[in-house]
Amino acid sequence: MKKLILGMALAAGSMAFAQTTTGMSSSSSPVQFGIKAGMNVSSLSKDASLQDQKSKIGFNAGLFAHIPLAESFSVQPEVLYSQYGAKVESINEATVLGTTTRTVDSYSTHLDYITVPVMFQYKFIPNFYVEAGPEFGFMVTAKDKGDRTVTTTSGSSTSTSSSSYSEDINKDNLNTFNFGLGLGAGYYFTDNFGITARYVAGLTDVAKNRPSGSDAIRNNVFQVGLAFKF
């Protein structure tokens, strides 16, 4: 909760700075506020238990302030709701007293965050920019959704059952704060409407209190979307 409050304070401070800068900026380069939304293609870095993980599709949406610092440089703080996670397939098989049970779980791990990216942008031409900067994330929800198929074989007899499930992940076992670095670019077709693309590499282990010697699991996401400046 303290980290979430810190994130909201950071966002509020950025927006307050933007409002102050609005009064100081020249009319040729005013501070602009806007909205953006798009698609996330997210994954979790692999370790021994995630060999068959695949990317998951999600969305992001929120607000931003575009603050010019110089003719070609600007900073853009954002507040977004962003869906991270991955698709995973796990297979477990055990034989007890001649009976073999094979369990296949095909599920998506949903990790939803309030993220606060702070992107520093450089314009190569008036409508095209590149950007880089940190992203601070604060976990809102965590759950697994998917299908489970259990096949039991005993001698020549085989039975199969399938079910769907949705399970909350205990956030006490997760780091609810996520820190990443973003790198991206964007192009504005008009002064107000543009397309954006960004890759964010997570640096924080998703799991809390990981056993010594085991691999960290980190968020990774590619984002593409649309932005509109008011």
Automatic annotation (TrEMBL):
It comes from the Bacteria. Residues 1-18 form the signal peptide. The keyword Signal applies. Keywords: Signal. The keyword NADP does not apply. Pfam families: OMP_b-brl_2 (PF13568). Residues 17-206 form the Outer membrane protein beta-barrel domain. Residues 147-166 are annotated as: Disordered. Coiled coil: none annotated. SUPFAM superfamilies: OMPA-like (SSF56925). Residues 149-166 have a biased composition (Low complexity). InterPro entries: Beta-barrel_OMP_2 (IPR025665), OMP/PagP_B-barrel (IPR011250). This is Porin family protein.
